[in-house]
Amino acid sequence: MNYDKRTGWQVGDKFFSNKWLAIRYAIHNPQYPYKAYLRDDSWEATDWSHEPKDSIIDLESKHCEHLRKKYDTLVLCYSGGVDSNTVLQRFIDNKIKIDYICVWYTKDKDAHYNKDVQLAMQHLQANKDKLLGAELLFAEKLDHNEGNSIYNFEHNIINTNWQLRFHHIGHELNLKTRYPDVYRKVLQNGCIITGSNKPYVYKDQKGFYMQHVDYDDENWGQPVLEMFWQGENPTLQIKQCHLAKQWLSKNNMTDTNKIYKSQNTDTFWNLNSSFGRQSMDKFFYTKNCFGETVEDKYFSQHYNSTWGNSYFANHFPNWKQTDSYYNLAHVIGYLNQHPKFVEQYKVHGWLTNKRYLG
After folding, report:
1. CA 125: distance to chain centroid?
2. CB-based burial of residue 277 (10 Å sphere; 0-12 exposed, 13-18 middle, 19+ buried)?
3. If residue 326 lies in a helix (H) or strand (E), which one and from where to where?
4. Is residue 15 assigned to a domain?
């Protein structure tokens, strides 16, 4: 299938769908500007300064219709959380069929730490008559040795497309490994729908704007996924951003990302509801938010030699004899040879263009 340039990295006039290749090229060509690329061809032709008149529900419904018309196979990754549940509900409301619905659990599916996925499966079973024959797929997440975690880093980092984490992350590799037949259908003409992306809205001296940083998105650069905001045009994303902007203004705040990563669940859910997200169980309203984790500081590709060396020394004393450790150390060492390049928002999150909201 011929995918258009939706996400990736731009260095000079060259476009990369793999961040590690982009970084190597940028290091060896410091004269070229570089940035993250996110639907620039279509988004730059749109007026972001005015809020669309259509309701958020109507725009989400049109997005569902667009996906159904465009693809032969639709796969929804469903956690029961506020984002994926909103997507599912919109398909149900409009009686639009999803072909497969995937729920991933961690190790023992009956364990208490899997309560969210247990509730998700219960919700799907209770609403099975509304799913128009969607096939439910229930499987264990990839573990450290299967996925793109540091423990499995035995080959070239290019193979992970930079998504190297302490824990495995990514819906595409889960589907490819656990359900290869379904994955092949996606590659032929399908998409994996996730609700993983919320509107990132900030404020500077010129006003409120939307801007993505590539480390914020677990699926950045993977062409077979349709994000919550990737409809046939930017209207849905613009609407969400304006609703988030209004919430920030009302609450005298300037940064949605800080709220997403806070431990203040009341504020987190209040913001989510302002741009139309809805949960299916009260459990999710008491569940912890993203929070500040070690992945945000280091394994989301913020390489720092002092912090990195001390981290490995303290946490992986018995891991140093493995191929994974030596390969990872090689990558860190390579980047640390270029300290001027390894700064905030260079290796750690290349920025997209700012889209001001008026």
Report:
1. 26
2. buried
3. helix 323-336
4. yes
Q: How high is the pLDDT of residue 168?
A: 65
pLDDT for residue 299: 39
The pTM (predicted TM-score) of the whole model is: 0.85
Residue 136 in any domain: the answer is yes
- Round the CA-based radius of gyration of the chain to a whole number and report it: 20
Query: 213-248: string of b/e by CB count within 10 Å (b at 16+)?
Result: bbbbbbbbbbbbbbbbbbbebbbbbbbbbbbbbbbb
Q: How many CA atoms lie within 13 A of 141 on its CB side?
A: 20
Distance CA 229, CA 210 (A): 12
Residue closest to 274 by CA, chosen among 289, 288, 260: 260
Which residue type sits at 204? D
List Cα–Cα distances, 114 to 110, 286, 287, in angstroms. 7, 15, 12
Give the count of domains, the chain. Answer: 1
Q: Is residue 174 part of a domain?
A: yes
Which residue matches tokens 């030699």? 305
- Please, which contacts does 246-251 make with residues 24 or more away whose CB atoms are closer than 8 Å? 246/274, 247/271, 247/274, 247/275, 248/201, 248/203, 248/208, 249/208
Please give the C-alpha separations between residue 309 and each of 24, 252, 328, in angstroms, as whole numbers: 22, 40, 11
Specify if 264 maps to a domain.
yes
Whole-number Å distance between alpha carbons of 299 and 150: 9
Instruction: Answer whether 38's CB lies under 8 Å from 217's CB.
Output: no
| pLDDT beneath 50, residues of the chain | 1-3, 290-307
Give the range of the structural domain holding residue 34, as residue numbers without chain letter: 7-294+345-356
Please, what sign has the CA dihedral across residues 13, 16, 19, 20?
negative
Instruction: Provide the pLDDT for residue 52.
Output: 96
